[in-house]
Amino acid sequence: MTGQAEQATHRANREGIVWVLADMVLVSGGMTSLVKAQGVVYPAFQLVFIRALIGLLFILPLIWRHRHHIRNTRHPWRNISRISCNAIALTSQFLAYTLLPLATVNALSFSRPLVTMAMAAAFLGERISRLRWAGAGVAFCGVLVMLAPGGVEWNAGLLAVAGTIVFGSLAIIQTRMLREENTTVMMVFYTVGLVVITAAPAIYTWHPVKAADWVPLLGIGLLAQAGQYCFLRAYRLADASVLAPIGYLSIMVTALAGYIFFGEVPGSRVIFGAAIVLVALQATAFLDRQVGKRKLARADEIQP
Hints:
The protein is mainly α. The chain has 13 helices and no strands. Helices cover 83% and strands 0% of the residues.
């Protein structure tokens, strides 16, 4: 029976990896390329609004089915605050894609876990081990390597990436504060909130859309929704510890997409800095798990 259970787990993990790789291709490769191409013509607010509006059309049946939970939302204002941070983070990310190479934006975004960890300690009172702080310090050195002269071109794109990291981390912290909230309610708030929050700035900065451009603009929304489905499917099937390391392959997908569609070649400093960040984060996570296993083993030995 144990052997069958292990085989089932392995099958689920393999299937989960396939789904998360599909998410990377759809979002990191397809959607980001469309955003970068269309961002030259259309403002970031307009792109986010169209993306969110398409997502809203997809979840209308879900809104109707769970209308009772939505009416009885436990923390409406905290949800609104979370979605406001998400709107700023997503708009900043779309803007960054138009100003910097795709691989550079992706590589710098790997620093988000460092900011999230610091915020979790400051706002949630979470205890962070010395090992994780040390790993964060090494990873931050990798970010500095990417930002050093000759690494990344200094322009408004870096401010956009910073906005993505800071407000994206704030959104994650607020999501942790909403553990008691219904998951469907949070998803509905996210989609509807993006539509409402970005509607006014999108209308104010709106550029008339050419008929031919509606295809890629609709593609942004469709790929985003399809990617979200693949992501959720992956994490329903496989262990997070199995999928998390796979997620870092997204930098290869974005680098390949940037090279194929835009002729972008990541600089040596960006590649080296990204490698430092990835190795530091992965090594810290591995060592932290080993420490946790040793503590559990000692606790089992102490128990009579």
